[in-house]
Sequence to fold (126 residues):
Amino acid sequence: MTTELEIGLYIFMLAGFLGYHVITRVPPLLHTPLMSATNAIAGISLVGSLVVAGANYGPLSTILGFIAVTCSTTNVVGGFLITDRMLSMFKRSEEQTAQPRRVPFGRVLVTLIILGAGVMAFLYWS
Fold:
């Protein structure tokens, strides 16, 4: 009889194998949409880490949840910045010189709000 841990490890290995083969066969033209999908998955992990940080299972889970919120937020912000930079590579040269490089303040603001919510959850439940 198999245990839940063995089933979880089988699923993890299968997902890793499948993910590796799917990613290596993506043509370079599709890297930007793939990065956007990865950002969406990182956002889902951010929501999960907020739930863990605020669930008040104990001080260790709260601290690990806070660390997960910080790492997920960094991942989401970095993903948005990289996607923005990749999309700017497809603009024509006269469009790039006409418009100065801007910082996506909306994305940074949303990220800071999410990070602040994680800090507030950490402080409230600890």
